[in-house]
Amino acid sequence: MSHYPPHAAPYPTGPARPGGRPPGGDRITAPLLVASVLCTGLMAGLFFAYDISVMPGLAELDDTAYAAAMQRFNAAIDGSALFGLVFLATLGLTVAAAIVTFRRKRRAVALPLAVAAACYLLVLVVTVAVSLPLNADLAALGDPASAQDVHAVIDDFKAVWVPVNVFRTLFCVLSLGALCAALLRYGKPETPSALG
């Protein structure tokens, strides 16, 4: 004979989540958000380090030493598979998180993710369209000690590369801020209005 009243559940079921989603049912969004924040933070930190240490330090050198040092920095980064992975994965992870949250009708989370993706996309475009061609021009000098036009190349390089890197830092930080906002919103309970 049952000790429970008629129609009573033998075990407490707990409150149902809005929208009928079971707790722990979303196993992909949180990892995507965390990975996006980490990758974007790494990229922002890299660009920021150039802004506050590498470029000011190089500015103290003569043009020949400046060119030789920058060539080596560029070669090291260009040859790093880890850098290439993080640089590209940052956008892919953020876009994927935005798509997943939008499809789950978490628009309050998807909106800052879309902003973060747009900001980082600008970083990627500027890098490919401006920074990499300048790096290629610098590499084309060959040995700076024997290059004839090293002074003109370095003047042009400094005038564009340095402010463009500040731009990349700024938009990486904006992207990171938007990602943090999305992460905070994701941690809040869903409301019926947020679920559409």
Automatic annotation (TrEMBL):
Disordered: annotated span: 1-22
Coiled coil feature spans: none
Membrane-spanning residues: 30-50, 81-102, 109-132, 166-184
Source organism superkingdom: Bacteria
UniProt entry keywords in alphabetical sequence: Membrane, Transmembrane, Transmembrane helix
Protein known as: DUF1772 domain-containing protein
Organism, scientific name: Streptomyces pakalii
